[in-house]
Amino acid sequence: MNASANDLLTVRALRKTFDGFQAIRGVDFSIGHGRVHAVIGPNGAGKSTLFNLITGLDRPDEGEVTFLGSPCSHMSPASLCRRGMVRSFQKSNTFLGLSVFENIQAAIVSRSGEGWKIWPPLGRRFADEVQEIAEQVGIADKLDLLPEDLAYGYQRQLELAIALASRPRLLLLDEPTAGMSSTDTHRAVALLKRIVEDLNIVLLITEHDMGVVFSLAERIIVLAEGQIIADGNPEDIRANAEVKRVYLGKS
Predict the structure, then answer these.
(1) HSE on the CB side for 7, CA within 13 Å?
(2) Total Cβ atoms within 10 A of residue 190
(3) The pLDDT value given to residue 42
(4) Distance between CA 239 and CA 39 in Å, rounded?
(5) What 3-state DSSP class applies to 71?
(6) Could you report the per-residue pLDDT of 19-66, keeping only the tens digit for each?
């Protein structure tokens, strides 16, 4: 793989083994341009492990991850977040018992380097930024509600708002439409397209819904048994015989 100094993210020769099982086996790729990239593959292909290695939740046995030109495999998720690499998980990561406003506010406070304090209360601090982010993701009319009182689709929009509060350069989304209705899925795809365009964010997703992948992604990386078996634009991936055999023919 030929890496460029302008690459946002570079993954070089990554390997990770768990109890003798090779979850990631020599993965190489870089992200230097394009807005939306997807990693797909069958269950057990290594997608979650790859995301964990990129975002600092796991350490590679071999290889290196570089972000914004600097090696980052040794960095914590919090440190990477402050540098502009932000991840949103498939499972909800909101603070139950805090309002939608307070959830977004807490993310802004974290980004600013301050600790979240119960006392003294923050009141309406960062209110303008909270309002702006809420408008960007379509939940400005729900700021006084609790996350647990939101419909599922709006809970996912809140999670996106929390991620955006960190001002990411690279945003990694793990199954962003998992569990959504068809209506919510279409709304989520439209929202992600708009966010990427308006905020100039690079998006890297894992997703099982191939309709979502082919609607969003400009580039698709296909994993199988911990290795990349294909890497290209949606048309190339659709036509790839090995991808059809290993994955698309079963999806």
Answers:
(1) 18
(2) 12
(3) 93
(4) 17
(5) strand
(6) 999 999 999 999 987 789 999 999 999 999 999 999 999 999 999 999
- DSSP state for residue 115 in the 8-state scheme: P
pLDDT tens-digit readout, 112-169 = 766 555 545 677 889 999 999 999 999 999 999 999 999 999 999 999 999 999 999 9
Nearest to 189 by CA among 180, 57, 64: 180
Distance from C-alpha of 100 to C-alpha of 94, rounded to nearest angstrom? 9
62-67 and 70-71 beta bridge pairing: antiparallel
Rounded CA separation 62/16 (Å) = 7
Q: How many CA atoms lie within 13 A of 37 on its CB side?
A: 20
* Cα(51)–Cα(96) distance, integer angstroms: 25
Task: Give the CATH H-level superfamily of domain 1-84+174-191+202-251.
Answer: P-loop containing nucleotide triphosphate hydrolases (3.40.50.300)
Whole-structure pTM value: 0.90
The residues spanned by each domain of the chain are 1-84+174-191+202-251, 87-167
Query: Residue 117 corresponds to which tokens in the numbers above?
Result: 């304090």
* CA distance linking residue 32 with residue 68, whole number of Å: 10
Q: How many residues does the chain have?
A: 251
Q: Is 22 exposed, middle or buried (0-12, 13-18, 19+ CB in 10 A)?
A: middle
pLDDT at position 224 over 60 = yes
